[in-house]
Amino acid sequence: MRITSVRAKNFKSFKDLDIRLDNLNVLIGANASGKSNFVQLFTFIRDIVKEGLENAVSIQGGAYLRNVNCRDDEPLTMELSIEHGPGEPLVRSEYRFSLAFTGRQVSIGEDELRSESRDGQAFTIKRVENQYQTEGDLGPLQGFLAAMETVDVSRPRLLIEYLPWFNDLKSIASYDIDSNAPRNGVFGRPSELEPNAGNLAIVLDKILSDDEERRTLMMLVKDVLPFVEALETEKLWGRSLIFKMRERYSQQAIPAAFLSDGTIDMIALVVILYFERKQLVLIEEAARNLHPSIMSGLVAFLEDISHRKQIVITTHNPQLVRHTDKSRLILISRDARGYSHAERPVDRASVQQFLRDEISMHELYVEDLLEV
In sequence order, what are the beta bridge partners of 93? Predict the structure, then answer.
């Protein structure tokens, strides 16, 4: 499954968002421009499918999910364009919903799905006055129609919460690596990497236990950190697990507590990109703590893995911008009224003129000329 475009009205700092998504998307923009809000749009979708609408709204801040400057009668609206995987009965879908807020209560306005099946047939299912109406060839839906008739639509529950073709949205993963979090021993934590990479030792222990995965991990890590000879894990007092790194200069392994921030971050990034089984990966400040010389290697990793999973990252790092294909960049900015906007700077006429004048995207970003 791949999200090809997203549209939203009144979501957090965005008044009117409409942006095409590629396999790799690099968000740039000033502090407080709305990059994190853009990322949270996808975690909100994930939480709806995974936790239910009411819980998702609560996780995202309740009424603060909606733009604080919009009128009380303006709904929050979202629309996703989706390409389904080759093994699924659907080819593509357009899904749209709107939410109204009354105090702490949320209610559903629109809830509509338009899909095309593998045999070229189209169908629509939408919510009308607390019941669902269908149109078109309902072949892929037949097994779920009876179950949908028993759904209590008086409760705020969206279609994507119980239609199986959208289960992949549950696997959307969001990371904001904290280089201090993996330094301590861990015990009784998940085997999937946590958002801050705090359980990195547990994940590495699982990877290193498989010879093929160990070789792949070390090849990738050495590609960007050539001083790394080996990674290993160790149990402390028979319970807590730590990871250690051995440099090529020494036979003595160094515990994670004494590794540099950048080394920990880069190892975590390799794990996120190549070993976490997620279809859409969101990474906040992916280049944080990394030396400029690593940027070309990181971008090569991002481009490589984007053929297998969809990537959205944020960055303030000029060197990452320099090495990223200009078509991958999405500029997030705010206008005089405080509303965030998203656009691909390469599509702007002024930027195209600068590029013709041989001023690079990297230079325009550093000099804050992308919005001119």
Answer: 82, 115
